[in-house]
Amino acid sequence: MMKKPSAEQTLGGRLKGNRSDKAFPYLMIAPAILLFCVFVIYPFAQGFISSFHKWDGLSPMKWLGLRNYENIMQDSLFWGAMKNTFLYAILVTIIKNIFALLLALFLVKKVLPGRTLFRTAVYLPVTMSYVVIGVLWMWIFNPTFGLLNPLLEFMGLGGLIRGWLSDPDVAIYSVIWVDIWKWTGFHMVMYVAGLNSIPEDYYEAAAIDGASSWQRFWKITIPQLNSTIFTNLLMSVTGAFTSNYALVNVMTGGGPNNATEVAATYIVKTGLKYVNLGKANAMTFVLFIFTLVFGMIQLKTIVRDENYDH
Amino acid sequence: MKRFRKALVILLALAMVMSLFAGCNGNSGNNNGGSPNNGGEPNSNGGEGGIAGKSITLITSDKSYEGQADAYEAAVQAFNEATGANMNITFQGKWTDLIQTLQAAKISGEKYDMTSVGSGNLHQSIAKSGLVMDITEIVEPLKDRFVGDSLSHHTIGGHVFGIPHGTVSTMGVFYNKTMLDELGFTLENGYTYEDLKTICEAVKSQKGITPIIHDGASSWWWPSWFFFTYAQESGNKSEAELEKILRGERSWVEDDIIAAFDDIKMFFDDGLIGAESLETDTEAAAANFVQQNAAFYFCTATNYVKFKGADFEIGYVAYPVLVDGATPQSSGGADEALNILTLGNPDNLDVCAAALEYFTRPEVAAPMFEPTQNFGYSIVGVDGHKTPISDAAFELFTDYTIMYLDWYWAAEHNDAVIAAIQGLTTGEYDGQSAAQYVQDAYDATVSQDDYTYEWWNTWTEDDWAAVAPAYVPAINAG
Amino acid sequence: MVEKKTSKVVVMVIGYAAMIVCLLLCVYPLIWMVFGSLKTTNDFYTNIWGPPIKFIWENYVEAWRRADMGRRYLNSVFITGLFLLINIPTACCAAYSFARLRFKGQQKLYLFLLCGIMIPTGVLTLPLYSTMVSLGLINSRVGLAITYAGTSVAFSTFMMRGFFISLPKGLEEAACIDGCTMFGAFRRVILPLTKPGIMILVIYNGLSNWTEYHLASLVLPSAAKQTVPVGMALFQANNAIEYPVLFAALSLATVPMVIVYILCQKSFISGMTAGAVKG
Predict the structure, then answer these.
(1) Could you tell me the fold of the domain covering B55-167+335-372+455-467?
(2) Which of these, A192, B144, B353, C92, has the minimum number of CB atoms within 10 Å of its CB?
(3) Which residue in the set B276, B425, B444 is minimally distant from A143, CB to CB?
């Protein structure tokens, strides 16, 4: 029979572990931490330092103290962009994940003709370049030869027609929609992988006990998916805060009249167009703090650390 | 065994990588040719030992027009043969990213000698950073080689920082000549807004289309409307008045500016142009024009290339006259240039100066420009590429064009003007509030970023010394 | 019984309808891009949504030649491949350690790493470039791959940890009856079970780095070493570029990613842990 491993040999036991066992976890994380410090922390620190200076990347830095930060506090464009960013983050996260989960649930069924085709199809927008996406959706939204307006009229919904990208009240939702369209496929893939890692017997056991599909979903699927859900949510939120520059830029460039300006586009604009790198790095730091706070909130509320209890 | 082998492979790969990492150290030979360092004999007198044998490098953006990179290489080669120097050219990054290219060049410590900075970037950030040399005296003998005012587009505060070398651009009105002929109209420079309105009314009623299209979704083009309306509302003194505004001597919120903004609104209110222009990017606008969904396309002359295959005749004219007695000025400029960097070795100045002279010879410049197939170039004697509209466009450039106003103001101001115009077109602003919006943005740059228009007047002697050439090499302009 | 069957049918019908809509929304754009790449310029601007009137295959030849795709592909493949070779083992080891081991400072170190995904990178290209200069990594494809590994490690670790955590506890003890080492347990037991996660890392990180433009354009300026996105950007920067040819180039750039996805798909289709737990 199996010999029960002694305390020294189990991974949980560290009491009398020999030296190589003790060092093992640290060795495992060392390359990652090293790369991280060199290529992320160090540049970030450099950027942080430059946030206290006036810098154009070409001439020497000039010390400004907290002036960049003071300017940011008064900058209505920045706070407008932050507001848009929050809106963007909330809508995109919720809708993307709901769509993705529903799609994944449907696509994970054992017998489903065309399953592979669907799975590939939904992922295709993820692979498309921003250039193509920009032209594509601008042309779909185009009032003269676009596809959306004729379609709405065909369905009798002509009253819904708007200036999709020109109406300041609507533009941001159009951009949000394109973001959802592009990334849902990726989140779906994550959910599919997550769903597939739930052992079948859990469901079988529950079915034997008479649980309905709904109960099985809530009591088994969701808890088992906990880490996948957390990963997807955190990715969506942090992505909406920090990485939506390319998409917004190619769709509207932040217009019309700043209606779709998000933090990422405003930061890049300040840094690269206005060549005000000090202020841009200050905004980067402020945005980082916001993202960090939201990330921590999610971490505390969503994650259940099963692996840590003994 | 299989897993073990896999792990071994991974470890080996890591080891390989680490060793390569250790091995590659600052191999920064990023030229398409040789090295940028001075390979010739050092001249303690500052270069009087002659050009032969010296190496210089010019860093510029990628030349993506078919055959242009080769043409540049060939010209550099010919220069080397003629002078015995060893000039190299490095192509890096997009034209619009040139600032990042130069920032990276500075950080990498490469001693580039020359570059090509666009006028907009020069005005807004490059000149005041001290990166380009003040070559006023060096290029004095070459003054007459440049078309029209183009040298002034690279001259700031009386100091020349670059010489124009490349395409020129102008903005105006493309129109569907066939359609207008059919409706019984002809257009000539000097037509009025009322004339345009009449034509547009006919187009609307008989063709059922919105007459004017503008690529508003490519938002950086909106200021061009302000350029032409303000040119006229200011009594054709827009450049001078704008400089006053930027110096803080007068406000944005005054009658001429307000009138200029109101004029833009007028086009929308009178139905000559519609909301679809707000959603239409450059490609879609071209599509609209080619599909004959619009009769007029207000844009830059270089867009002509997008109308390939259109089955109707196309014309290009100036903007309409909005104000009695005003000249319908367009905005444009000679964007591309050649500059000397302060990064380089001072011993190389004579080679750089010789290069400036050589590349501005018409017979040398022509093959360098030709691949762009532009309607006109900034070197006298180099003819533009002939198309049905090239003569009209070049006439616009020489007779009607003033420098783009956005080369005067800061990038923040430009974005404010864009936002203000977008607000105008959606009805959110009127002329007054649009002007106020821009004024607020301007005030913010002054209070927060210490914006000064005439930064050259704030420079100390040391600042000027840093961009002054070590000596003035003699150029034989022939 | 009958009700159960009806509701099941309803679900299938709605599901399929949704699938068809998704199919249209997702596949048509790709088809549109390919159609666009096969049109003449005039056709591109006049026949926007339909198939090409005439199939201009020459556009692809033109794009390949003008964008020098062959060399760019090779460069991108090399860089992305090397990047993945560094990124995957690094992230897996670190994620495993954070997920299934216990050691002092674990929480703090993990949160430290997690900060990495919350840093907005928009204007950090220049400091990163400066770091690369000090390390002598510029103008080197290997250098770029290493840098990519550095910038992606936080996210990769975060993602992989999620997969490691979702595996049932006690797997290592159960499988390692002969007292294997900790690394052995990791390599032999846990790692194979996270293949779906690794595949997702491959397609996601591979995608981000395959399409990364800013750093690549600064670090690898010379044409001989340029990557695909840099080539694309330069291609597009040309004001006179004909959009059909541009679309052809973009199609050429997109196709490899689709292929990689299709190939990797199989890995996360079938459940992997079911067998392990039963045994």
Answers:
(1) D-Maltodextrin-Binding Protein; domain 2 (3.40.190)
(2) B144
(3) B276
Select the residue of C145, C221, C240 nearest B92 (Cβ to Cβ): C221
- CA C222 to chain A, closest CA, distance in angstroms equals 22
pLDDT at C7: 77
Supply the CATH classification number for the domain B169-333+390-403+409-449. 3.40.190.10
Q: Which whole number is the average pLDDT over B160-181?
A: 95
Q: Is the pLDDT of residue A7 over 50?
A: no
Distance CA C138, CA C122 (A): 20
Distance CA C100, CA A137 (A): 44
Q: Which two tokens stand for residue B444?
A: 């913010």
**DSSP label at residue A38:** I
* Cα B419 to Cα B406: distance, rounded to the nearest angstrom: 14
**All domains of chain A in start order, with CATH:** 73-303 (1.10.3720.10)
Query: What distance separates the 2 farthest-apart alpha carbons in chain B?
Result: 90
- Name the one residue in this structure whose structure tokens are 């002809």: B186
Q: Which two tokens stand for residue C228?
A: 């695909």
Q: Which amino acid is at B358?
A: Y
Smallest CA–CA separation between B187 and chain A, in Å?
26
- The pLDDT score that the predictor gives to residue A304 is 60
Strand ranges (E), B44-126: 55-60, 86-91, 114-115
Indicate the CATH number for domain C66-278: 1.10.3720.10
Q: Which residue has the tokens 């006028």?
A: B119
Among C254, C242, C258, smallest CA distance to C62 is for: C242
Domain boundaries, chain B: 55-167+335-372+455-467, 169-333+390-403+409-449
**pLDDT the model gives residue A12:** 44
For residue C267, what is the nearest residue in chain A, using CA coordinates?
Answer: A193
Contact across the interface for A139 and C48, Cβ inside 8 Å = yes
pLDDT of residue B14: 56
Model pLDDT for residues B353-407, shown as the tens digit of each residue:
999 999 999 999 999 999 988 999 999 999 999 999 999 999 999 999 999 999 9
What is the distance in angstroms between the Cα of B21 and the nearest Cα belonging to chain C?
A: 7
List the single residue in A35, A103, A288 with the smallest CB-CB distance to C150: A35
- The answer to whether B155 and B408 are in contact (CB under 8 A) is no
Residue A249 CA to residue A179 CA, distance in Å, equals: 12
Q: With contacts defined as CB-CB under 8 Å, which chain B residues touch A269?
A: 415
Q: Which residues contact B209 (CB under 8 A, 6 or more apart)?
A: B203, B292, B293, B294, B295
The percent of residues in chain A predicted with pLDDT above 90, rounded, is: 37
Residues from chain B that touch C45, judged by Cβ atoms under 8 A, are 283, 286-287, 290-291, 306
Q: Which two tokens stand for residue B443?
A: 């005030």
Total residue count of chain A as it appears in this document: 310
Tokens 């490098």 correspond to B57
Closest CA to B139 of B352, B304, B393, B390: B352
The C-alpha atoms of residue A290 and residue A281 are separated, in whole angstroms, by 14
What's residue B242's pLDDT? Answer: 95
Query: pLDDT per residue over B434-473, tens digit each?
Result: 999 999 999 999 998 899 999 999 999 999 999 999 999 9
Candidate from A9, A200, A227 with C-beta closest to C165: A227
Strand partners, B175: B296, B315
Task: Report whether C130 contacts B100 (CB < 8 A).
Answer: no
Give all chains having 3 or more CB-to-CB distances under 8 Å with chain A.
Answer: B, C
* B57's tokens: 């490098």
Terminal Cα distance for chain A, rounded: 25
Cα dist from C276 to A69, B124, B232, B419, C194, whole Å: 55, 64, 80, 60, 12
